[in-house]
From TrEMBL:
Binds 1 or 2 [4Fe-4S] cluster. One cluster is coordinated with 3 cysteines and an exchangeable S-adenosyl-L-methionine. InterPro entries: Elp3/MiaA/NifB-like_rSAM, Methylthiotransferase, Methylthiotransferase_CS, Methylthiotransferase_N, Methylthiotransferase_N_sf, MiaB-like_arc_euk, rSAM, rSAM_horseshoe. Residues 123-355 form the Radical SAM core domain. This is tRNA-t(6)A37 methylthiotransferase. SUPFAM superfamilies: Radical SAM enzymes (SSF102114). Its EC number is 2.8.4.5. The keyword Lyase does not apply. GO terms for molecular function: tRNA (N(6)-L-threonylcarbamoyladenosine(37)-C(2))-methylthiotransferase activity. Catalyzes the methylthiolation of N6-threonylcarbamoyladenosine (t(6)A), leading to the formation of 2-methylthio-N6-threonylcarbamoyladenosine (ms(2)t(6)A) at position 37 in tRNAs that read codons beginning with adenine. Residues 357-417 form the TRAM domain. It comes from the Archaea. The keyword Transferase applies. It is an enzyme of class 2 (transferase). It comes from Methanocorpusculum petauri.
């Protein structure tokens, strides 16, 4: 049976039953889950908060590292007595094992969720919403298995993206998270010359009280449009937040990874972004202990963190994925990977503490984006700083916040007295 038929059968099973959903991995996966939930609701389903209360369980899977993939199978086994629906990256590379673990599982091809969702005409009701602008990637990273599951880049039409964003705003969404496997590659496959800055300008023209968080942008696709991109993010509706995954501070390792830029080009992006917006918050990713990485290569990554001062660093120990070119390379011992990961973490923590200290005593404009727990909320300033306020304030409220302290991974503040 082809993927269209499989997806149709799986989605048809989500009719007039109680559904519980679990999502793993990237923001894009969360966007797919939101779409499946809206499809299910349109077919009479009730969404539950726990698996125990549900007739069916949806698992949106991630395979970025081996440990995560094995956890996916553990979750499937746990729901042996339930109707199981599986989507995400796992079915695309290991559908046979999915069915071996849970023979009655229904599989949804993630490529077809977007098409089926367009027929529903509703959007999620919440404070945050995921706006998918493309699927797939034109990268050639030697370690990546996700590109086999997601395929080549396909940019969604600008008009469709803007229409969906407009519906989000009408539904009361205050934070729109623009996402793709590589956001800055949007438009590279188009023939009309439109690129990400054009899309951002179209989104900011939508009337309403909302802000846009831009997702992961790879250095090699961001650099050619950087000036235009930095012009576009001047609009106050866009968070001054930039997620640019560098993966290594060593050119030798970047070449072995199949990354098509140099460490200096990543550092150039950081420099030019801060020249335009001194407070812009930059997030990045590192892979610790990639095959062939030397001690000097690892030290280069540590030095780069200390020099570029990112506001957030995602660190992953290298995990060999079957079928990738990196699987043929000599793998480093796990203790070495752990040691390199610890060194990167220590450097990142030192940068967080130093960065956060500079904010104490400042008063900033922020928007309340979510309720943490009773009596406290999270607010985000223009640079997407995570600010916890011990007050009950409605989501979407614009507030002036004085920063009083930090807890390394977030700032603490109070509402400023006028």
């Amino acid at each position: 049976m082809d993927s269209t038929a499989l997806t149709a059968a799986a989605l048809d099973r989500l009719r007039n039953i109680r559904l519980y959903a679990e999502t793993y991995g990237c923001t894009y996966n969360f966007g797919d889950t939101e779409k499946v939930i809206e499809i299910a609701r349109s077919q009479g389903c009730t969404i539950t908060d726990t698996a125990e209360d549900a007739d069916a369980v949806l698992i949106n899977t991630c395979i970025v590292v081996a440990r995560t993939e094995e956890h996916m199978y553990e979750r499937m086994r746990l729901f042996a007595g339930k109707i199981l629906v599986v989507t995400g990256c796992l079915p695309g590379i290991s559908a046979d094992r999915v069915l071996a673990v849970h023979p009655d599982a229904y599989i949804i091809d993630p490529d077809l969720i977007h098409t089926c969702y367009r027929e529903v005409g509703t959007v999620c009701a919440g404070d945050h919403a995921v706006l998918q602008i493309a699927k797939g990637c034109n990268g050639h990273c030697t370690y990546c298995i996700t590109r086999f599951a997601r395929g080549k880049l396909t940019s969604f039409p600008l008009e469709d993206i803007v229409d969906q964003a407009r519906e989000f705003v009408k539904a009361g969404v205050t934070e729109i998270q623009v996402t793709a496997q590589d956001v800055s590659s949007w438009g590279m496959d188009r023939t009309d010359g439109l690129r990400l800055p054009d899309l951002l300008r179209a989104l900011t023209e939508i009337p309403g009280k909302f802000r846009i968080r831009i997702g992961m942008a790879n250095p090699d696709t961001l650099l050619p449009i950087l000036d235009d991109f930095l012009d576009a993010v001047a609009d106050p509706k866009i968070f001054l937040f930039l997620h640019v995954p560098v993966q290594s501070g060593s050119d030798a390792v970047l070449k072995a990874m199949g990354r098509r830029y140099t460490a200096a080009q990543y550092e150039e992006i950081c420099l030019r972004a801060r020249e335009r917006y001194p407070d812009i918050r930059i997030s990045t990713d590192y892979i610790a202990g990639f095959s062939g990485e030397t001690a000097e290569d690892g030290e280069a990554s540590v030095a780069q963190i200390l020099a570029t001062r990112p506001g957030k660093v995602n660190i992953t120990r290298f995990s060999v994925r079957p079928g990738t070119p990196a699987a043929k390379m000599k793998n480093l011992p796990e203790p070495v990977k752990k040691e390199r990961s610890r060194a990167l973490t220590n450097a990142a923590n030192a940068v967080y503490d130093a960065n956060n200290e500079t904010w104490i005593g400042k008063t900033v404009d922020a928007m309340v984006t979510e309720v943490v727990r009773a009596g406290s909320v999270t607010a985000r300033d223009r640079t997407y700083q995570n600010i916890v306020i011990l007050s009950e304030i409605p989501v979407g409220t614009q507030v002036r916040v004085t920063i009083t302290g930090h807890r390394r991974h977030y700032l603490v503040g109070i509402v400023a007295l006028e």
